[in-house]
Recover the amino acids of this structure.
């Protein structure tokens, strides 16, 4: 999203359920650090003024619930 807007970004990826430390989100410059809203909750005590988050919304296919129910019925 940001790179598509023409911004230069450096990506730092972490596995799901990562136990963040201050070193994980502290860098030598004062550039903005963006993370998902989920990770921001985990990093609240570690964050500074340069840290922000981007809300993420899952978009599921319109027939997702029906497909899920059919799958569960077949497995039951």
């Amino acid at each position: 999203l940001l790179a598509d807007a023409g911004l230069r970004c450096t990506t730092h990826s972490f596995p799901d359920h990562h136990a963040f430390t201050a070193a994980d989100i502290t860098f030598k410059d004062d550039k903005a650090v963006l993370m998902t809203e989920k990770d921001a909750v985990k990093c609240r005590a570690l964050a500074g003024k340069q840290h922000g988050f981007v809300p993420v919304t899952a978009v599921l296919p319109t027939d997702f619930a029906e497909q899920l129910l059919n799958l569960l019925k077949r497995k039951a």
